[in-house]
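Service request form, structural biology core

Requester: graduate student, group of Dr. S.
Request type: structure prediction, single chain
Budget code: on file
Notes: please return the result as structure tokens.

Sequence provided:
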Amino acid sequence: MSDQEHWMRLALAEALRAGEAGEVPVGAVVVAGGRLVAAAGNSCIADNDPCAHAEVNALRRAGAAIGNYRLPGAELYVTLEPCVMCAGAMVHARLTRVIYGCADPAAGAAGSMANILQTPFLNHRCGILAGVLESECRGLMMSFFEDRRGAF
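Core staff response, request fulfilled:
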């Protein structure tokens, strides 16, 4: 198993926990220097917070762990392509690279609908790697929403 698959599997574990809690199953981990700095899943419903996406939660925890809101040299692994809000937070955190599992063709901001991570007018750009454990990440999202639709 590659390092990228290892970290994405940890993000998938966070996504599973979020889904079991009734949240949209997205998970994220922040890695720096080859070690895990922070991990989180979505918690918008539990926290009554529209900003409590997995990526933002992981960035907040990483900033607290490192003692700085800027995380140069860090990478963020996330199961779903980031939205505009999360991509903006990643740029402000000065992440080196964002690695995501499956694309979000409806709202993805790392290339699908927009590319906030590499927008030329911002003062930082993040590298992007897409498709790590793509089928597992996509399958988790699809089964979550299929179950939700079946419940109604």
